[in-house]
Design brief:
The protein has helices at 31-34, 47-64, 77-80, 85-90, 143-147; strands at residues 103-117, 120-135, 156-159, 165-169, 174-176, 181-182, 210-213, 221-227, 230-234, 267-271, 274-278, 291-294, 303-306, 320-329, 332-342, 357-362, 367-372. The protein is mostly beta strands and 378 residues long. The chain folds into two domains: 23-200, no CATH class; 210-376, no CATH class. A six-stranded antiparallel sheet has the order 5-2-1-4-3-6. A three-stranded antiparallel sheet has the order 7-8-9. The protein has a two-stranded antiparallel sheet with strand order 10-11. The longest helix is centred in the N-terminal third of the chain and has 18 residues, at 47-64.
């Protein structure tokens, strides 16, 4: 059940589609391109034909513009002129000069008609457009990572010239197309319009959940997954396959150097170059009452952690059994610290965390709240 929806929108002017190697080189398409009049359907043409005709008209307009209005170097109108995904994928652009760490391409952007009312998004027809994409070394991540704050990105895009507006997500860096606007910046990817939140709310047609493997790309499910607007949560409780020897202490940093330094039942294991006495496990049965076994992912060995829930099925009202992460040691590194029920699609149970914070479960107050150290997101 969706509750406590927060749509803190700071309506402002958006800087669209930078065409240099970084944000400092960002340029905005001309106002004329943004204000192209919509094609009408007075001749009775079906909506799809009207939309295709409108995009074709825009392509012609873009091609006739001064090149400086769109790009100082290559010609993005080659991409904008493509009216199908196949044609978009087939466009060959010349290699960029003097730009070793960046590139460009034609990128197909899937847009969905969306209307937002009282925190609920409803969707109409889907359509795609070909855009000119310029990108650097930065990686946007998938839509779930962006929605959950794990990837700093401005990968949400909106066309507000239509009614209803159309929104979409694309992992490329910066896109260029008349009337297409970037929803926001890395600090606030939704700043331009309330509809920009919809890809991170329930029902978005292109939403996909991502399951984490045990270890790095092992192909063995950890039971931990995350979805757009939904934090890392334990949907299942598989057996963990990592033996303690996989994380045997080899570092000189930490609170132990070998198992004999630890109490009975604990092992001296290494995580992020730091050794500590840890209760390793393979299943929940290996843990004490009130604890669950969280399998190792990219964040250290399988460990027993205090748990308010074991899997999503233990939570009520659509909440998920979320993983709370914390630092391994004072200088960095993260590991699971607790499992607790948490509301999806809501900032840290109603609190907006700053960019240098992450949402964590406080075992003393039995509540989720913002904690320092952005390295432990989500």
């Amino acid at each position: 059940m969706l509750r406590g929806m927060r749509l803190d929108i700071l309506i402002g002017v958006l800087v669209l589609a930078g065409l240099g190697c970084g944000d400092d080189d960002a340029r905005t398409p001309s106002d004329a391109a943004s204000n192209v009049e919509d094609a009408s359907s007075e001749d009775g043409s079906p909506p799809d034909e009207v939309d295709a005709g409108r995009d074709a008209s825009l392509s012609a307009d873009a091609a006739s513009q001064d090149a400086s209005e769109l790009d100082a170097g290559p010609t993005p109108e080659r991409c904008i002129a493509a009216t199908t995904q196949a044609a978009c994928d087939a466009v060959q652009l010349p290699q960029l000069e003097n730009c070793d760490d960046c590139g460009h391409d034609c990128a197909w952007l899937q847009l969905h008609e969306v209307e937002l009312s009282e925190g609920q998004c409803s969707y109409g027809e889907a359509s795609g457009v070909c855009t000119y994409a310029r990108y650097g070394e930065e990686s946007t991540g998938d839509i779930a990572a962006v929605c959950n704050g794990e990837a700093v990105s401005s990968a949400f895009w909106i066309d507000r010239s239509t009614t209803p507006a159309r929104v979409g997500f694309n992992p490329f860096g910066f896109l260029t197309r008349p009337r297409l606007e970037r929803c926001g910046t890395g600090d606030d990817p939704f700043a331009l319009a309330a509809e920009c939140h919809c890809p991170c709310l329930p029902g978005y047609p292109d939403a996909e959940c991502t399951g984490l493997d045990q270890g790095f790309r092992s192909g063995t499910a950890s039971g931990i997954e995350y979805c757009p607007g939904v934090p890392h949560h334990r949907s299942a409780a598989p057996s963990c396959v990592d033996p303690p020897s996989s994380f045997a202490c080899e570092s000189e940093r930490g609170t132990c150097s070998e198992d004999v330094d630890c109490d009975d039942g604990l092992s001296c294991l290494e995580n992020d170059g730091f050794c500590s006495c840890t209760k390793h496990c393979a299943t929940d049965a290996d843990c004490s009452d009130g604890e669950s076994c969280v399998c190792h992912t990219h964040r250290g060995p399988s460990v027993c952690v205090p748990s308010q829930c074991s899997t999503d099925g233990d939570c009520m009202d659509g909440d998920v059994c979320a993983v709370s992460y914390g630092q391994v040691h004072s200088s960095g590194g993260c590991e699971p610290k607790a499992l607790a029920c948490r509301q999806p699609y809501v900032d840290c149970d109603g609190t907006f965390c700053a960019s240098d914070q992450h949402c964590a479960f406080d075992l003393e107050t039995d509540r989720w709240g913002c904690a320092s150290n952005d390295r432990c997101q989500p």
